[in-house]
Write a structure and sequence with these properties.
By secondary structure, this protein is α+β, with helices and mostly antiparallel strands. The chain is about 30% helix and about 30% strand.
Length: about 180
């Protein structure tokens, strides 16, 4: 199964929690149906990306990266690569690469979708990332290390996040707590 086919299978089977998430799910599926390369960065102006919100084993903290190009704190994530078998694989790969934390336990079901414009994605011009987000739990002894894509990587208390929560943290913790 190709990454595109796997992404279509995942998104077609995913149940959105509200109308906004359903609208994004439908948009992502339509995008993939129209673009055989829709999971890769060369598909312009839009392409899927995959990310993971990493939470501590006790669910009290969130690990975020200070993105070097954007200058903002984000969850981990990025572009899909040819070796990725699924969006979940891409999200886990990105989280491990960018956080330096191995042994992450990733929930394979998406927790949140987000479409956002990006001005620093390769060639000049506006690109939209169609982000599929997952949640991962770090081992209790996890020590993060910043990658070349990050200025900093840091644990933040759930109640003291540096950026406004778009619903991702709430949905991720709700999923983990069952």
């Amino acid at each position: 199964m190709t990454l595109r086919d796997s992404a279509l299978f995942t998104l077609r089977g995913w149940t959105a929690r509200d109308g906004d998430q359903e609208a994004l799910r439908s948009r992502y599926v339509a995008h993939l149906e129209a673009h055989s390369d829709g999971v890769y960065r060369q598909c312009r102006p839009d392409h899927l990306t995959a990310g993971a919100l990493v939470v501590s084993a006790d669910f009290d903290r969130v690990l975020l990266t200070l993105h070097a190009k954007a200058g903002r704190w984000f969850q981990f994530g990025g572009h899909c690569e040819p070796g990725d078998r699924s969006l979940a694989d891409a999200a886990l790969r990105e989280a491990v690469e960018e956080s330096g934390v191995s042994g992450l336990l990733l929930d394979p079901e998406p927790v949140h979708l987000d479409e956002h414009p990006v001005t620093f994605c390769g060639e000049p011009g506006l690109v939209h990332h169609l982000d599929v987000r997952f949640v991962a739990v770090a081992p209790p002894d996890a020590v993060p290390v910043a990658s070349e894509e990050s200025t900093d990587v840091r644990w933040w208390p759930v109640a003291g996040l540096p950026e406004p929560d778009t619903g991702l943290v709430h949905r991720a913790l709700e999923r983990l707590r069952g």
